[in-house]
Amino acid sequence: MKRTSALLSALAALGISTAQAEAMQCQPVSQQQVVALFERWNETLKSGNAEQVAALYATDSLLLPTVSKTPRLTREEKVDYFQHFLKKRPVGSLDSSYVQVGCNSAVHAGLYTFRFDTTGEEVKARYSFTYRWDGAKWLISSHHSSLLPST
Length: 151
Hints:
- The protein has helices at about 1-15, 20-25, 30-45, 50-55, 75-85, and strands at about 55-65, 90-100, 105-115, 120-135, 140-145.
- It is of the alpha+beta class.
- The chain has a single domain, classed as Nuclear Transport Factor 2, Chain: A.
- Strands 1-5-4-3-2 form a five-stranded mixed β-sheet, covered by helices on one side.
- The longest helix has 16 residues, at about 30-45.
- The chain is globular and about 60 Å long.
- The termini are far apart.
């Protein structure tokens, strides 16, 4: 406790606020919690609300979606993409999963399958999500998805 107070005092002397100092500390996260972040995203897709899905992404995040050639950088661009994507009522399932955790960051990559309830179509794809702790919650900092090659 004394060490933390001393550290915060030293950081304050350098002009670093308590909030900034807390953001600099590593937020613990397990591999299971990172997989649960995918489940949170997948459940939000089921809501059909593009605004809610876009809210899971950090302000400065990058979305490279499966079914669009346009990189989505702004919140508006993400909302636009998800408004179209969600019309198909997608439901994702993980086929393979690789998780790496770091200090206030995590990577989740592998293969997933999307079933579209409106058409019954299934699409297999590769994915990678990177997450960043913003001091209050985990947000997607980048998301790449691409169709799985047939060979």
